[in-house]
Write a structure and sequence with these properties.
about 170 residues; mainly alpha; two-stranded antiparallel ribbon; 4 strands; elongated
Length: about 170
């Protein structure tokens, strides 16, 4: 059922019931969007059960993850592209300061408190559990191949300077 124009495969409308022999005609935007929405919803639902949000996890990881303690502005700049709006990360920093999961020093640098580190570790365990559910029946090799394909698609659209493109 696949028709070819030169080397290109015709683009078919999105079809959640597409059979394996029809998958090459399916729009990647539909499927990648569906995966993003489904996995994000599953993760956020799991986090909500322990009264934490995904953006809070991002901030905890960012404060923990660099060679030097970041400023609020550095955290906001680094994470805003992931957020639902331009003010979300700044609000999350405020929430975490209020929860006393973050502290701010005299140099205006953010640090995890002991409670913040405990929360980050607990969230990492939860994220690992969610990852196991999402990856069930998928080998590491299949996962790597899928990500390489997605990364190549980004590079095809954005050019060789796409984020994550090998140099």
């Amino acid at each position: 059922m696949m028709s070819l124009i030169g080397n290109a495969t015709d683009q078919a409308p999105a079809n959640p019931a597409a059979t394996d022999d029809m998958l090459a005609t399916q729009p990647v935007g539909y499927w990648s969007g569906l995966v993003h929405a489904t996995v994000t919803r599953h993760l956020r639902d799991a986090m909500a059960k322990i009264d934490v949000t995904q953006p809070q996890y991002w901030v905890l990881n960012r404060v923990n993850g660099g060679p030097a303690a970041p400023s609020r502005e550095e955290v906001v700049t680094f994470l805003t592209h992931l957020a639902d709006g331009p003010h979300e990360i700044s609000r999350v920093v405020d929430q975490l300061l209020h929860r006393e999961w973050l502290s701010i020093d005299d140099g205006q640098r953010l640090h995890l408190t002991d409670a913040g580190e405990a929360a980050r570790a607990r969230l990492r365990e939860l994220a690992t559990e969610v990852r196991a559910v999402v990856h069930q029946g998928i080998s590491d090799e299949e996962y790597v191949a899928a990500l390489k394909v997605l990364r190549k698609m980004v590079a095809n659209v954005e050019g060789d300077e796409a984020p994550g493109s090998p140099s």
